[in-house]
Amino acid sequence: MINQYLMVFLYVLSAYCVGFLSLYFIWQKDLKKVNLFIGLAKAWGLGNIFFLILFYSLSFLNKLDIINQKNFLIVAGIIFLVSILNLVKWLNKIKLNRENWIWLGLILIFLWPLIKHSLFSPLNAWDALGVWLIKAKPLFYSAGISQSGFFTNDFYHYTHLDYPLGLPLLAAAYYRMINFLNDQAIQFYLLQFYLCLNFILIGKIAEKFNKSLFFVNKLLLSGIILMIPNFVIYSHNGYADIPLSFYFALSASILMEKLNFKNKAKDLSMLVLTGLAGALIKIEGYPWIIVVCLTTGLIIWKRKIKLKQKIKLIIAGIAGITPIFFWEIYKLNNQISNTFNKAIFDFNSITKLKIIIHIYLNELINTNRYSLILIPIFLIYLTLTFKILIKKQMNYLLFHGLIIGQLTAYTIIYLISPFPLMWQLSSFERIALHLIPIIILLIIYNYSWLWPEKK
Hints:
Elements: H1 4-25, H2 28-33, H3 36-60, H4 69-93, H5 98-110, H6 112-120, H7 126-132, H8 136-141, H9 145-148, H10 166-178, H11 186-208, H12 215-226, H13 229-233, H14 241-258, H15 269-281, H16 285-302, H17 307-333, H18 347-364, H19 367-370, H20 374-390, H21 400-416, H22 425-450
C-alpha cells in the first residue's frame, strides 16, 4: 500500500501533467508565450476540468469503482512519461526566465508553514465536514450517485443536496486511490487552488510589469497578495470557495488576455471551458456562466473568428455543460430539494437591499479578514476606472461587467432568499473571496492599458 502522502503528491502531479498535455496538444500557441506562473495555473485549471468531467461521467454511470490505486498508478505512469517527453521538447524551444524560478522558490519557502499545515492538520471547518466532504463518503462507498442513495435521502437535507459535486468527487477519487477515508491529506490537493490563484495574479504582475518593476518590488507585491488573511484561512480548509475563486480569476484573466480590440478575436475555447468549470464546483458558478457566455457572445458578434476556432468553442462548450446538464436532470427527476425552492420576492425583499449594501461596505473595511489591504485595493481600482472614463476608453469597461454581473446576481439571490440575512452573514465574506482576485486583475490590466511598457 502506497503512503497516503505520496499518493496525494502523485494525484496533484497528475493533474498538472494532464493540464500541461492539454496545453501542449490543444492550446500550443498559449504555451509558447506563457510565463511560468500563468502556465502552472492554466495547467492546474485544465487538469482539474478534465478530472471533473471524467469523475462526473463515471458517477452518473455508476462506474466510480474503476478508480483504484492500481488503475491510477498505471494511468498516472503513462501520463508522467508522455509529459516528460513533451516537456523536454517544449523546454528546448523556449527561453527560461531564471528570475521566475527564483521567485517561485521563494514563494514556496514563504508558504512552507501553510503547506505543512495542509498535510498534517485535521480538518475542522463546518461546511467542509458537514456539506462538502460528507458527500465524498457515499461516493467512496458506492459506485455512483444513484447507487449511493445519499442524494435522495431527505435526512441529509442539511448538506445542501442540490449543490454541485465537483469538490466531493475530487476528494472521493483520492479516497479510492488510497482505499480509505482521509480528510487530512486531501487538503494538500485543495491548497493547489490557492497557490494557483496567487500564481495567476503574480504571473500577470510579472507579465505586465516586466521592465517597470524591479524583482524586489514584484516580490513585495506578490507577498501582499499572498498574505490577505481571509484567503489564507480558506486556502485549504475544505470549502469550495477558493477553487471557485480560482476558476473565476482564471477565466477572467483568459478573457482579458484573449480580447485585443485591434485584432480579430483569438481562440476562446479555453475561456468557455474555464468559465463553465465554476458551476461544476459551486452553485455560485451558475451566474458566472451567464456573464462569461454574454461576454463571449459579444466578442464573437463584434469580430470574425475562424471555423477551427468555432469548432473548438462548440466542443469546449459541450464538454463543460454536459455534466452540469445531467446533474440538473438528475435533481429534477429525483425531486432533490433546491435551496431556492421557497424563494420569494415581495416588498420585504426590497427592504433588504439597504441592509445588503451596508453589509457589502462593512466587508470592504473589515480589517480582521483583510487587514488594511482591501481598502487601498478598492481605491486604486476606482481611481483607474475613473481614469479610463476620462480617457473615453470605453472598450475596456467591458471587463468591469464581470464584477458588476456577478455582484448583481449575488444581490438578487439575497433579496429572494427565504432565509434571514443574519443566517447568511458568513456567506458575505466568501463573496469577497470570489471577487477580490478579479478586482486585482483589473487593476493590473487597467494600469498596463493606461501606461503600457515600452518594448
